[in-house]
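Researcher: Next sequence.
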Amino acid sequence: MNDKIAGKFRGTGVKAGLMYGMAEFYGGGAFVIINTFFLVFLTKALGMPAALAGAIPMVGKVWDAITDPMMGNITDRTSSRFGPKRLYILIGGILSAIAFVSLWTTIPTRSTTLQFIYYIVMYCLFSTCFTIIMVPYNGLLPDMVDSYDIRSKFSSLRMIWSTVGAILAGLVPTLMIKDTLNTSMYLKVAIIFGILFGFAAVVTFIGTWEKVKSPVKTKLRDSFSEASSVFKSRSFKIFIGIYLSGQCAMDFVSGMAIYYVDDVLGGYDKGYLTMLMGVLLSSQLIGMLIFTPIMTRTSKRTTILIGAPIRLASTLGLLAFSYAGAPIVPVLLLSAGVGIGNAATLTSIFAILADMADIDELITSTRRPGIVSGMATFARKISAGLSVWFIGILLSLVGYDAKLAHSGVSQALTTQRGIAMIFIVIPAILVVLLLIFGYIFPITNKEFDIVKKEIGRRRGTDGSIASDDEKRILERVTGFKYEDLWKTSNEHKIRS
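Model: Next structure:
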């Protein structure tokens, strides 16, 4: 690791946390733009059928199933004077800026088949670049600090950057793209944000550090079995449930926002989308400031149990105001509730992720933050891809006509009602699942301290003996019998 570059920023204060968290400006902003505008770009601007357009991100997810586990393994196997994760954050940040712009570049053809092939290739390219930066980034914090509370603080600062990125990504495009049929405006937005995303990654590279440790000695062909073995952890499986349900719910909101405002409320030309996204994301930032101290004083699980009901009630409240000509003020107030509730989920997710490498180490005796973060990153991209895919399918099922949209003609009344149901009911169902997963998640401050203590025992740095109560807690957290913990063979049990 290059201490001359990162050493002066090393610490546990706000400055160090902000520089660590800045890369999430890219992580939080990129998918807001993609979820909000990519399907619109394909269907309205290019006239591609909704079901076909929605299939493009799903093809990208199949590709992610290959690249994400491999990148996690590559990260853990890499040795670099900069620190392997920081090196890939720098490389991935530069490549991502280029790939993001290519995603919104049009080709001189009206052939739907050629467009479909082109955007599949571009989406896979973007997904690969996202993997190169975000897999190492998601595994960086466990190798920076050990403290449960400091990890929580850094994760909260990371989520603030995520929300800032989401606010800018949610508002700037709506202000610039006045005409959803104008392809050149999408490209201008992409160029601006591509530069910002690359800059954010460079700042995080400069302002972070990694503990010196030996690379994991695994073969590249073992990437998939290694990655699959992460799911033997009970806590990780429940965490993935929290991650997918929480993020998919918000992806449906951002992905359907234009359709909801334009085709249901009939207020796109009145600036309703800018208002809705502004309120939604600003309230999310306020929610971060509210839930960060709550999480610090209670647990990462508690914020989910508080925020999910707020989010659910606010979402269902929109049912009363989802029709053409509905007053915008109640819609905005309820959107603020959705944003505040979502802040609780975001505040918790990445704070929890930082602890999953410790649970995995207790099970396998191997430090594999890259593998763990690789599967978490894959889950994030699955949430985005599934959301866009399902939106495309559901829009087709409710009779959405891309040709009418491309010509600027309103959709049928039954289609408008269907769009409202997609925008409201699907996120509500996902938030219910989020609440269930949050309720059964087994780790608070108490359990985490016991896990770290047990790792110390296994390493030989703690001479105490585990009590029966501690053994029961460790078994509940890991899903393994106490005597079966700390075995390298647990990495490969998935194949037995």
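Model: The CA atoms of residues 200 and 452 lie 32 Å apart. The first helix runs from residue 3 to 6.
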